[in-house]
């Protein structure tokens, strides 16, 4: 059976594939907010049914949080574990969406049609590229090309609290030769990319407490400690004037990018101007002396993701609030240790508190170190060839600014290397209002997986 | 008729007076939020009916905002204009209230019983001290002691947008010999106080805009400008390390307190330790080199009243938000000009913006300069004697950290001096959850007004 028949079937089936994706997108499976837990169940059920429809022995597996979906097909040939996540980010601020985030539609844009809706790119659309490739194989050949374990989680956007225990309890069942992950972007539009290194992540959250109660800014303005001023002053000390994180010991384990890798990256097709201009920037704003690409892929960050306190309503309120709150994440590189970074950060804040101020920390937030992929394995070169064939452009090994903690757990718990191939674009607005996935990414993504599976099996 | 009969009637009537106050407190007349405008109408109607019940010719007067209540009684003798406001602050954060803010109850506390509820102290409870004193006079003597114009507004907590036009259009009707205002505190529990100077206020609000859309902190963390970091950095420049406002030209028009006045203040019964400790502070946090009292009464401030941006929900969201917001107020002293302060502040922010960041300002927020009362008028000494008699303790002329802009407008538009007498306490939690008014403040406040009116009439 030639791959061409499968690719041709994929082309014919695209309208139906889009309809199936829309069905999945209509389920508001926001994992971080307990109000949506029934919808996470519903998305898992939908996937179980869909996998069964192509002959996969699939089941929903309960956890203390949202369920996992596990499916098995075949018992011979190369064995891949395919990972994706069915949960999505919250949609706030809802008023900035131009359409219902959970009523996906196809929209024309200057760069071609897109599927608009929460999860279209991260990660339901990407996940379904693989499932649709399998469906095409099944339709045309009556079987799948190799032995496949499907593994979908529903807590990726909320720190994956059930992932490690589940992997540990089901390690024998989940073991394979290599893991495939579809949750990453292309370096630039049209440049097929395999992610070769990922940043890690550390999440934390703190509250600055000042007065015992909210105060009137007339009665206490002046003598009163204002937690909003206090938190601003402390956050302002997180970076120096060159954009470098000013927390002591923060950079322990950070290495400069080797010259040879830097040269490869400079030729990987990344378009700094488009990357910056597309979101309204004229220059990179990270550490001085590094390109936007290196700032994104190979330098650590300390970002404030949420900051609040006092009155946010209409009009004015003359209040000195009792508390101020900050959510933050650090992206980690090299050998940075999440626990050490957390300790350094907390010490930094505690050392800078004014008298009468105190800080409390949210203790439930996780961390994971950076990852570097094992690109010397033969599967990487086979996949690179398959992607180059599909996109008619040399595929590249690229860094990545995001964090996919699951790859680290696959290594540590299952002893599995991961290969990350994704078709998202920088302007997909993942985690933002008006998330989209290019129809081209979806269509050629499906074709790409068909070719990759073919090459992994028939090398 | 001796004052004693009136005071005795007040004592007998206290349970009924409390019931009437509770009725008024049950009306959620939050002026800053348009959702409550019908309740502002309802509070105004309640007051019109209550004034009519004691023989005052009262009416509700519509404005483009919330209505005024105006009432007249008598045509001879000294003529006072009594001012109060029936609107209240918002109640957020609602979850910090121990009871429904609009279901007032009497609670026992170590310092005696209190009336708990929004507006109990600011200003419905205080306003009703004067009305109840009038009611007692009417019951016992069949008339009121002097000529009185009652003037209640419903926009004091939202910048009084209708006040100036209303005063200008009705100046002839509202003119009197002196204005009485009951919206202030006692220097310390049990120390009757006439406020002799007030701080002014300038309100402003700004938004820092960074990227065109919310960004993913993996894709753009590093190269992306984060408005939450930007706003924190800028707010941190508002003060220097000695607690002084670091905005150029901010202190234009600020004068040091004259030595003689400072000496009076030092002996006025203000208890710095109680003032600070009662809300959780061990030391004053304003400008170095000034006592808490001077920081509160005679030094200007720049306070952040609201700060927000990014994700505030449960869990984590790896977002770099497009915007960050800040609400602020400055308390003004001496000859500080609100327009000049606003211009200086805006320039300060604009001069410090990073490339690719921009700022927008809310243009609807007002300002008013500081006020000094004309305490050489004979009415002040008569009131001081009346208060000293009631509280069995020498009454004092005190400064005040808050702002009562209406006194400035009475001077400018009606040519009226104001006398500010109030019975609130520092721990009343006005503008905060669990606002209260001591029953003693209410009871002795009513008796105090009866004595003051008696002294103003029969001197």
TrEMBL record, chains A, B:
Quick one: signal sequence residues? Answer: none
Gene Ontology biological process terms from the UniProt entry:
proteolysis
Segments forming domain Peptidase M20 dimerisation: 206-355
Specify the enzyme's EC class, one word: hydrolase
Q: Name one Pfam family in it.
A: M20_dimer
Q: What is its EC number?
A: 3.5.1.18
Keyword vocabulary terms for this entry: Hydrolase, Metal-binding, Protease
From the UniProt record, list the coiled-coil ranges.
none
> Is Transmembrane set as a keyword in this record?
no
Q: Which InterPro entries match?
A: Cyt/Met_Dipeptidase, Peptidase_M20, Peptidase_M20_dimer
Report the GO molecular function annotations. metal ion binding; peptidase activity; succinyl-diaminopimelate desuccinylase activity
**Keyword Metal-binding, does the record have it?**
yes
Show the PANTHER family listed in the entry: BETA-ALA-HIS DIPEPTIDASE, SUCCINYL-DIAMINOPIMELATE DESUCCINYLASE
The protein, known as: Succinyl-diaminopimelate desuccinylase
Q: Which organism is it from?
A: Roseovarius albus
Gene name, per UniProt, is: dapE_1
